[in-house]
Amino acid sequence: MVLPEDPKYALKKVDEIREMVDNDLGFQQAPLMCYSRTKTLLFISNDKKVVGCLIAEHIQWGYRVIEEKHPVIRSEEEKVRFERQKAWCCSTLPEPAICGISRIWVFSMMRRKKIASRMIECLRSNFIYGSYLSKEEIAFSDPTPDGKLFATQYCGTGQFLVYNFINGQNST
Ligand code: COA
């Protein structure tokens, strides 16, 4: 875990990784709320490569994703295809939240090995000293289709919290 008060070389590395993650995500990411209060988790492989990155920030509010009714879906592939095609909507009602996941990324060859899940578990026990965050206290910044499939599985519901979406005045 890299914290804002860590040595410059560590922060520089985090910046480089964030830039690479943003490029990989392929679109302009929302800027971090308050740079001095972010926590970055890096997942390092046995051969000392960064294969996962999670950047978390303090937030106050999240908005619940509104689950759309799925058409009758038979296979996992159909579910993934459907999820990739559709936009997501969320409630305009703010709900209290504590931790915003600004970025979550796993190296493509290492996906589906529970690396993202392990990084969130680690985040939940380290974001606030002495407390373990519940899944209800976490929100995801403007999730990608992969992020949505992951968050739905991790949170055990498609109605997880999101923040940082662009919606006229409602960008948090
Ligand atoms: N399609 C369908 N289900 C998925 C999924 C996907 N692409 N990614 C995760 N899940 C679900 C699965 O149920 C998975 O469990 P399973 O593999 O036993 O079926 C469960 O979530 C846990 O996934 P996990 O292995 O912990 O996630 P990961 O390490 O593969 O990382 C992401 C998930 C989203 C971080 C990764 O796909 C990624 O880096 N994507 C590109 C960047 C991105 O879009 N980030 C999200 C920003 S909001």
UniProtKB/TrEMBL annotation:
One of its GO terms (molecular function) is protein-lysine-acetyltransferase activity. GO terms for biological process: mitotic sister chromatid cohesion. Residues 95-163 form the N-acetyltransferase ESCO acetyl-transferase domain. PANTHER family: N-ACETYLTRANSFERASE ECO (PTHR45884), N-ACETYLTRANSFERASE ESCO1 (PTHR45884:SF1). GO terms for cellular component: chromatin; nucleus. This is N-acetyltransferase ESCO acetyl-transferase domain-containing protein.
